[in-house]
Each structure stands twice: as structure tokens, then as C-alpha cells.
Write a structure and sequence with these properties.
Blueprint: E1 2-10, H1 18-32, H2 35-43, E2 49-57, E3 65-73, H3 76-87, E4 93-96, E5 101-113, H4 115-124
Antiparallel strand pairs: 1-3, 1-5, 2-3, 4-5
Length: 136
Amino acid sequence: MLSKLSMRCEPAIISESPYAFAALFRGVLAERIDEGYAARVHEQGLHPYSQSVVLERTDDPNGAQTLVWTVNALNAEAHESIIEPLRADGFQGFCLKKTGKDFRIAEKTFESMPLTDLARDFYKQDAPRRMKIEFV
């Protein structure tokens, strides 16, 4: 199963780039997941998850932005061990220990797709000669 959890966090005011903040958010992940699983993932060369922290523009005429933390799981074990603890109702905010900055999670959006659906969509449809790939 592929799964994706996006969390809109408040406040969106950060003094560093979102890229620099991503490492601090990884610390929040480490605090929320099982220690045994975290140790195994840390030792592996390949990681069954990815995360990003981005500032997105809103429709606000004053140019307000929203901070979005996205965590993706690439298999069922990563989904259960990483995504589910973050989806839990009790996880409504966190503090970045290095900066002391508190964030409240204003909204969570979850998406998932079974690998069989991905394979079906990928192999059974005609593919264009060119694909647009977006890195975040």
C-alpha cells in the first residue's frame, strides 16, 4: 500500500527555509513511532517513507502562506508504523525541540492506493512518451 498524509500546520511563520525545517520534522517522526521500527529503518540503506515540508500560498490577498508537512509510506509496515501514529486523533500538535517552536495541526488529509491499483494503472494504460516529474 502507498499512503500519503498531509498536515496543514499553524503557525506558518518560520524563520528558516522549509527545506531546513524538514530535518527537524524528522525528529518529530522519530518521537512518534515505535523505537524498534525506528532503529531498523535508521540502519537500512533504503527507507520506506519520505517526507517534505513546504510553504504553500493561500488565497489570502495579504500573501499569507500555510505550512504543509507531508509524509509518504511506501509499504504496509511503514503505513502502520509511521502514518497511523500521525493520523491518530491524539496527535494534534508538536514542538520542534531544537527551536522550541510549537505547531498545531489545523487539518489532516489522507490518501492511499493499493500497489495492485498502481500496477494496473501503470501497465494497462497507454503511457505518453513524456512524463512530468515534480520534486518537492
